[in-house]
């Protein structure tokens, strides 16, 4: 079983959901992103999702777009991302990467898989790669023992849902709303239905992302999902802070609140 | 001819998942797959339906003003050293070939029962065409346009608003066409139930490249017959400019099976491909994934999209339709860059010899033809016949061209 699978199992045994926190690599700087992710782990985030910044992130809302732009303007490279993965994995928390397909294709699919595994990464979330186009990634992830997380959506047909889930390893990413990343005032009505549809076809853990930003929302999602994935709300802590120290303090506070939330599932 | 512009013809087709060789396909969020499948199904049903084809044909004829003329440009020909036949897409309603695509997709939108269209636009031409079709079909219309472009093209912003569209300036990334396309994709993911994304070129995820190509391929079907009628034979070459590449595919498709007809696509070479300031994705780019499809892309060593540069806003895009990537790889078509200066020289030549002001996009096809003519004449040992897709008119470019030639009176 994958390292993430072990973590999900442990959380399940503890009667809680796993908290996955996302941060773009190199935002605000390479060292700054390592500090931010480390702070998140220390404050109770279970799994770190390192987003490799991309110039055209069509699944991301304004907050992560802005953070990605800052990271790219700062000159972050794919190789830096792997260094960040290695540094954060050293904290002991499982580290999964997420990115759009072109940076991986450009790096070389098999080489990336090899280097990600060597850096201690557990796998890759692919927001714009569907299994239909993923032959090379399926082979590379098998060869290097990496998890692969494809997305399922409220609009997925039953047939596509089953096919997509069949190609997943580690966990399934359920997008809670039809839309892009970004904290929302209310959690989605579509998400519980989607999660139960996924459970109908697999025993893999299901993480729910898009729109979660508070401890209360995390608790709600933890009531029906195995993982609660938070991105924009965490990124905003750093983006809006007047100084790096303030950003880290805000990040710790929100991480603590979210960690509390996933430990108190609303069922 | 345009009475049945969608009648089945022989010609290259992608596989069922939209691959042209190693290019094309779908690189999109899962959330969009259902909508793409719906579109693909609606499209296949529509083209098999004679009433849809008749309705589209009638619109092309009565509203868009096609078939467009094939005009023998005698004075231009004499300067160039070839018999140059201009496919006058510039005379279509809204001033370019793009009206064919928007009418087709708007009809399909109605057929799918959707009430809203969104579009991306660079210079505003596709936005204006989409707003036009939306007005005609009573659809809500939102056009995404980079903030840099809304400032450069204020007149087209006003045109879209006059037609009832909402224009949203995009302030992310480089604030140009590629970012407008990102923003349109984000809107589509969030509103896919009632919204059709009316992509303006033969790019994007399957089925857009093949579908858009089919909506505009009447250009080539018409030109091929018109050339036979006028000259008694097929041309030696067919030329077009290539940005995303819909006008070029539109005119190429009918000729792909004619082995003796050479196909030339002219990309925007900007300041010159060697300077890095260009939009020549095939000549100066490499294979990658952008906006839902695998194709040639301008990108850096990490796969980040590079900004493109061209005097022509309509060619200023860092990717190209996947069918062109494939025609390039197979060698069936030849792609060459044309610099801003070469394009503007050809722009001036057409103005002065024929009294036709071309779109700067189309001026790239003219410039490429000027360079091609003597080589082809030498190779054939006679004057070649070249069909050029004059894809659009230059009214929208008067300010840019006036600036370039320094003929605008200074503001007082």
Distance between the termini of chain B: 52 Å
Biggest sheet character of chain A: 9 strands, parallel
Mean pLDDT of chain A: 95
H-E string of chain A = HEHEHHEHHEHEEHEHEHEHH
> Would you identify the regions of chain A where 5 or more consecutive residues have pLDDT less than 50?
none
- Mean of the pLDDT scores of chain B? 95
At the fold tier of CATH, the topology name of chain A is TIM Barrel
Hey, roughly how much beta strand do the residues of chain B contain? Answer: 15-25%
Q: Quickly give the CATH architecture of the largest domain in chain B.
A: 3-Layer(aba) Sandwich
| Order of strands in the sheet with most strands of chain B | 3-4-14-9-10-13
Number of helices of chain A: 12
Q: What's the CATH topology name of the largest domain in chain B?
A: Rossmann fold
Question: Helix- and strand-based class of chain A?
Answer: alpha/beta
Number of domains of chain A: 1
**Which percent bin holds the helix content of chain A?**
40-55%
Query: Domains counted in the coordinates of chain B: how many?
Result: 2
The total count of strands of chain A amounts to 9
Distance between the termini of chain A: 28 Å
Provide an overview of this structure.
The complex is a heterodimer of chains A (about 270) and B (about 400). Chain A has a single domain, classed as Aldolase class I (TIM Barrel, Alpha-Beta Barrel). In chain A, about 50% of the residues lie in helices and about 15% in strands. Chain A has 12 helices and 9 strands. Chain A has a 9-stranded parallel β-sheet. In chain A, helix 11 runs antiparallel to helix 12. Chain B has 2 domains: about 160 residues, Rossmann fold (3-Layer(aba) Sandwich); about 220 residues, Rossmann fold (3-Layer(aba) Sandwich). The model of chain B has no long low-confidence stretch (mean pLDDT about 95). At the A-B interface, helix 3, helix 5 and strand 6 of A face helix 1, helix 8 and strand 11 of B.
